[in-house]
Amino acid sequence: MRYIPLKNDSQELRLFESRVLIAAILGALLVVGLVTRLSYLQVVKHRYYATLAENNRVSPLPIAPARGLILDRNGVVLADDFPVFTLQVTPDRVPNMKRLLAKLKPLVALNAQDLRDFRRRLAQRKPFQNVTLRAHLSEAEAARVAVNLTRLEGATLHARLRRYYPLGGLATGAIGYVSRITRGELQGQKAERYFGYRHIGQLGVEKSYQKALMGRIGFKDVEMDARGRAVKVLKRILPRAGHNLYLNIDAQMQAIGEQMLANRPGSVVALDPRTGAVLTLISSPIYDPNPFVDGIREKAYRALATNPNGPLDNRALNGLYPPGSTIKPFFAYAALQTHWFHPHKRVMCPGYYHLPHSTHLFHCWKPLGMGRVDLKDAIEQSCDVYFYHLAFKQGIDRMTRYLGYFGFGHRTGIDLPGEYRGLVPTKAWIKASGRPWYPGQTIITGIGQGPLLVTPLQLADAVAAIANHGVRMRPEVVRGIVNPVTHHVRYKKPYAYPAIPRRRKNSLKRLIRDMTQVVEGPHGTARGIAYGLPYRVAGKTGTAQLWSVVPNYKGKHIRSDALFMAFAPVKHPRIAIAVIVEHAGFGALAAAPIARALMNFYLLGHVHARPQNQSRPQVAMAGTTP
Questions:
Q1: For residue 528, which of 406, 505, 589, 619 is within the disulfide window of CB 3.0 to 4.6 Å?
Q2: What is the pTM of this model?
Q3: Does 478 share its domain with 562?
């Protein structure tokens, strides 16, 4: 039998030694990899992981800055920030929410809406996040809560700044208001820009000067515990308040205009023709912007939105009105630049006009006519027939081209958002409408009716251009921007548009002389405001007729908007003004007295001019004034 060995000691020894060597090499590689990884984490990525660890312990919280003030030209505060107290609750620290609310009811007035809003916020909160129970506590309520805080576990009292408009609805059309930032407003790059801010400007200078008013956000580093609760403040970077704005608007003059409108639908715009400074910008009816700051109640907003007078509409910028007879001086200026027009040539006004080869009559506002009139008489008495003839001879293209020179159909460039262009029936507009243009439409455009629509701001800007020797200045609401740290005032420089083309040297002087007769002439349509004026006024009245399309509204009838534009003093104009009062009748009776009062206040310092020992002219009657 052959012998077979059961064990080879030398072979097993070599196998064991090789396995030990492989294990040692693997162990060494693991140790080297571990050391390399630790070195990478501890040396190369030290700052990165140190920052992550610090962020787990320290949380940066924003500190909102004070929003810049808005003041009128005399320093009257129109928009301010004032401290308000807010009662907040941290639900994670409240043992019994019902018991806490029961303790708070005798201290703070809590209505059903407050409790509903509180429960809604509770459902949306994050852990250890404060939830607002009641905002805008009165001083007495804040004092009662502060005294009892030790027994109100989980409740805290916070003070913050809230936007406030001390004069209510005064000049809201120019100032605008702020409201809470919505998700839509935080989309894209705005999210980073507005981080930490509660409110954003929605209208007026609050919106157009948002960047200057908002200031710079501050931060505080708060140490947090493992459960996300604040322990202490480690570092604080103070915010920088927003810049203050000085407006060109005079608050007292604005108040006088709003009082005279008496909440009737309408608008008043007054400019300094030399600089374009907006002295008054009124949109009536007015409304209080304060409820919008922290969110207006749905019922209150619905009442404003459904009001037939449209208080939320900014009529100065967005109101579109037929200009009526106030457009006549601009068409007269266009005719004065031609070689065929002779201002002294008289035209017969029998009280009506008809186109050649047509039997349709276009009536004058004076049924029996005015007889033979020239340009001076036609502007002074606002003769429709004269301007029917003029419109037919000029043609719509020339008429609208000169309206464009005066800014009609274009934005004025005012430093407020949302301005409308108006509507001028140019060639492009007529072609885009897809409808034929008839000669009769040219005729009625010549007296400011038809498709021609202007804004009150455009009308004031255009008459200011006449006062400023044919140069339009860009309207500016803001006069200067004040740095809150250095108190340096950066005044805005006036900007002039290209001068209006003038082919006849004295055409503008003639037009101003004829417009002066509207107030001073024996037959002037605005002669009723001339009594006692120590300065001379050039102006033009207007009455825009609108057919009612509202069913069951006193039947089908004509409602007239009252218009008046003017500037003064004639030799060295300092104020140009346009007034529109909706459905008020004749411009001379409803709009001109408002303009006179504001011009008196701006030029004389009081509303009523002192008598100048002159006989009182005959007051225009309602039945005979356009």
A1: 619
A2: 0.82
A3: yes
